[in-house]
Amino acid sequence: MKTMHPTRSSWFLLLVTLSLAAPFGAQASKPVEVKSAEACERILNGAPVRTVGPSPSTLIPLSLMLKAADSEFLAQVWRWSISGSKQFPTAGLAQMYRTAETAADSLVEQMNAKNMVTVNKARNPYDAAVETLKLLRSDDPPEYIRNGVIIRDNIVIVIPIMKRIVKKAGDTGLPVYAPIITKGHQSLDENDILTVAFAGWALGYWQQKMPESGYVYLQPMAAKRKRTAAEDAATNGHYRVDIQQYLPQIRTITERFMRAAEEASKSDQAAIDTATPDRRSKAVDTSPWAELGKTRLADAKDISMMPNPPNETASEILRLLDRGTLESLGKLDLNSDEFIETAIKTGISPEHLRYYIAHALASSEGKIIPIDTYKDPTVGISELVHIDFEDMLSRRLRSGVYLFGVELQNRSEARTHIPVEKKFIFAKALEQGSIETAWVEFFAFLKTNPRLKKGDYLITTYSKHELVKVEQEFEIVKGPAEKFTKAERASDYYSEFDSNGRTMGRLIGRKAFFKDHPEVTPHDVFSMIDKMVDLLDYVRADFAFPGYTNSIKHVLKHLGKDLYGPGRNGLESIAWAKEAYATGEAALFKRIQDYNEVDIDGNRFVTDFLRENAGKPVDPRLVQKERADGLDEAIDNAVKLKKFVSNLEFKRYLIDRALGPKQSLAKLSVARVAELQKLLDRSGYLDQREKTSQDEELNEQEQDAYQQHNKFAYEEKRNAALFAFIGKLNPEAVADKSSMASRALADLMSRASNFLLPSHISQILLIDGLQSKMNGIHFSVPADTKARLNLPTVLERELAKFDSISRKIWRGLYFDIAFPTGTEEAPEVK
Fold first, then answer.
1. CA distances from 6 to 109, 307, 593, 693, 705 (A)
2. I need a labelling partner for 565 at 20 to 30 A (CA). Which of 150, 324, 542, 622 fits?
C-alpha cells in the first residue's frame, strides 16, 4: 500500500483505506497466557480487581519500556521500585502530555466519527483495560474506541483511537481494530512508530488477529499558514506503519527489559541500591527515575555526564583504554602520542576529543574551563535588552506568548550608575487577540523607551526559544535567498541575513497582523531579530561547565547565582498560567512574574560573565602545540578510515547473523547479492528528495513535511523488502522472534548507524579479499605512533592496483591493525 501525503481530503481517503484493508490482517501468533491476561479475563468474568493478578504497580507503561530500550538500569529500578526515586508527573508535565490528547481531538473532528465510545479513565489500569475489552467483545462493537487501554504481557498501552476495520471476523467472531496514535510534536519519532507496532501487537492477542497496519497522526502545536495542500502536509501528517515487520523489534525490546528486571530480582537490596546505569542516554534523561540515574552516574564520574557525550561504541573503547571516567579522560595530554592513538582507536575526531577532555576536566575538578578565546559581543553597544518569553501550549494560539519579560542594562562603563530597568507585559487573556495586543506593547517598549531610541542595543536570549516564538507569531519562512521569487524579495515582508557566509532570506507570511496593528511594521520585526544574541551559543563554544548540561539553571549555579528553587520551570509556569487566567488570582500572576524575572536576571549574569572573560586565554591543558606539516590531516584521515572499515565490518556481522549459521553474505550467489542491492537502492527516493528541495513553490516548512513523508515511505518499503529477503533465506529470523537472527534483523531495520546501502554490500565483499591479501604480505608495524600513521612501503605499493574504494578499505584495514582498540589480536610491533 502506498503511503499518502495528507492533503485536505486525505483523511477521508485514509478512512476509506482502513475500511477496505484486508479483513483478517496478519495472523497473530498463538497467545501465551500471562498473569496480566489472566487477570483481565477473570475480571471480565466478574472477579473483583483487588484480588486478581499482579497489582497495577507491577504493570509496565509502554513509554517506560521504550525509554528503557538502551538502559537496563530502568528495568532494574522498575523491578525494585526504589523508595523515593520515582518522580510523578507534575502539573506542568501533565499540561505537556495534553498536546497529544488535543491532537486526538483535532483528528476526531476531521473524522466526524458518529459511533465513537470513550473509555473512562479509571485509576486502576485493569478497570480501563476491561472496559476496553467489553467494548471489543460486545455484540455491536463501536466503529471507534477513544482512549482504549490494552494490557499484554504486563505491558500497559493506551491507544488514543482504535478504528474498527472488521466488525466480525469469520473464524473468530471478533472484531478487528487498527490503532491510531496521535502526537503533538513536530516530526515523526522512532518511538511513535514502535508505539503503533506495540499497540497492534497487543490488540492481536485480544482480537486473535493482528491488524496489518496502524497509523501515527501528528498535529504540531505551532500554527502554520494553510494556503496550499502542501502546507497541510506540515500540520496534518499521518503515517502508515506495517505492524508485522516490527515484531522482531518488539520481541527484542520486551525480552531485554524483562531479562534485566529478572536479573534484578535475583540481586539483594544493597546491590540494587547502588546500581548505576551503564551510561547516560535519552532513556536515563527522561525516565521517571532520571534524577536517580543521573545522580548515580555523576557520583561514578561516568564519561557520559557531559553535554553531547561520546556515543556508546566510543565510550566502550575509552573504557578499554582506561580513559572511561571523567577523571581519567581529563588527564589525557592533548599533545601526547596517546591522544593521537585514542582519537584513532575510538573514531573520535581530534577536535571532538579535545571538547570531551575539556568537559572531563570541568566535571572532575568542579570548575569552569575556558575552551576558546572570543570577542565580547557587546562592544560598541550602549544598552543591553535581556528578554524572556513565557508561553502557553494551545492550538488556539499562535506563539502562545502571554508574558514578555524585559530588562534593560546599561553597557557603558562610564555610566554604571544607571539602574537596571524591568518591564513585564502580560496578555489580558489567553486568547489570540489579547496576545497580539501584548506583542504590540512589547514592540512599543522597544521603539519608545528613551534608553533605546538610538537603536544601538543588543537583545539577549538564552537558547533559540524567543526567536522561535517570533517566527511562530509572524509565520516567518526561512531559506536560501535564491529560493524566493523576485516579487517576494522586493516585498516589505522580506529581509536577508548571513548564515555561515551564505545569504539567506526570510519572509513574513502573516501580513494580517500589520493591517490590524499598523503601529508595528515588518521592519520592526526584522530589526528585533537582527539584534538578538543567543548567549547559549557562547557558553557552548567557549566554555566547559561542570556537569551534563548547559541549561541556564545549571550554568548560573556555577556562576554563584543559584536562583531557581524546586518546582520552578517552564512547564510548571504553563500550569500556573492556566490556573491564573481561569481564577484571576493575583498571587499566581506574581509567581509567574517572579519566575520570569529570574530568567531575565539570568541573562544579565551570563552576559556579565561573558564580558568579564572575553579575550582571556584558553586553559593551558587545552592548547595544542604546533604539529608538523600534514600531521593533523594524517590523524583525521586515520580516524575516518579506521571508523569506515569498522562500521562496514559491524554491518557484515549483523547481516551474517540475520542470515543464520548456514548462510553468510560471502556465500550468497551473485544473483542473491544483486537482489539484495536492488532492494537497498534508494536512487528513486533521492531523486524525489532532490525534486522537493528544488521546488520553488514550497516554503521551508512545506519541504520539510514532504521530505519527512518521503523518507518514512521509503524506509517502510525498504524494511518490508529486507524482512522478506532475510525470511526467504533464513525463516528462523522471521518466525522465531527470540532468535539471535531476529535480533540482528531488528537492528538492521531500526538503528540509523546500521543503515545499509547497495554500495555497502560491495564494500563488505571487498573487505574479505583485501584482508586475505594483506594477511599474505609480511610487514611490520612501527612502534612510534606518528610513524604508524603512514602505510608501510610494501602496503603502499599495492595502492596503484586499486580503485578509490579499495584504497580506502586497504588503508582502513591497516589502521585497524596498527591502532587496535583492545578487542583485536595485538599486532606485531618492532
1. 16, 37, 41, 19, 10
2. 542
Q: How many domains, the chain?
A: 3
> Which among 542, 491, 533 has a CA at the least distance from the CA of 514?
491
**Chain segment 6-62, per-residue pLDDT in tens:** 333 332 223 233 333 333 333 333 333 345 777 777 777 776 655 555 555 567 888
Please provide the distance, in angstroms rounded to a whole number, between the alpha carbons at the two ends of the chain: 61
For 12, the grid coordinates are 477521508
Apex CA 215: angle with CA 211 and CA 221, to 5°?
A: 160
Helices assigned H by DSSP within 391-521: 432-448, 465-474, 486-489, 512-516
Q: Is 72's pLDDT higher than 70?
A: no
What is the side-by-side strand order in the sheet with 383-391?
A: 421-426, 401-410, 383-391, 457-461, 532-534
Position 334 in a domain: no
Same domain as 736, residue 653: yes
Same domain, 578 and 668: no
Residues 116 and 185 in one domain: yes
Question: How many residues are present in the chain?
Answer: 830
Burial of 379 per CB tally in 10 Å (0-12, 13-18, 19+): exposed
DSSP track, 320-352: HTT--BHHHHHT--TTSHHHHHHHHHHT--HHH
User: Is residue 467 a part of any domain in this protein?
Assistant: yes
Question: What tens digit of pLDDT does each residue of 634-663 get?
Answer: 999 999 999 999 999 999 999 999 999 888
Cell of 150: 490494552
432-448 vs 522-530: helix axis angle to the nearest 10? 70
Q: What digits encode the pLDDT tens for the residues 368-418?
A: 999 999 999 999 899 999 999 999 877 678 899 999 999 999 987 655 668
Instruction: Note the pTM of the prediction, 2 decimals.
Output: 0.78
Residue 225: CB atoms within 10 A of its CB come to: 15
For 492-501, the pLDDT digits (tens) are 999 999 998 9
* Cβ neighbours of residue 461 closer than 8 Å, sequence gap 6 or more: 387, 388, 467, 532, 533, 534, 535, 603
Question: Is residue 530 within 8 Å of 497, Cβ to Cβ?
Answer: yes
Helices of type H across 559-680: 570-583, 586-613, 631-659, 670-680
Asked if residue 238 and residue 116 are part of one domain, the reply reads: yes
> Which structural domain range is residue 112 located in?
10-28+82-253
Tell me the average pLDDT of the chain.
83
* Residue 393 sits in the same domain as residue 249: no
Q: Answer yes or no: do 119 and 240 share one domain.
A: yes
Q: Are residues 640 and 695 in the same domain?
A: yes
Question: For residue 7, what pLDDT is reported?
Answer: 34
b/e sequence 648-674, b meaning 16+ C-beta within 10 Å:
beebbebbbbbbbeebebeebeeebbe
Grouping H, G, I as helix, E, B as strand and the rest as coil, residue 636 is helix
Q: Of the candidates 819, 804, 413, 491, which has an alpha carbon nearest to the alpha carbon of residue 634?
A: 819
Residue 84 φ/ψ region, left for φ over 0, alpha for ψ in the -120 to 50 degree band, beta for the rest: left
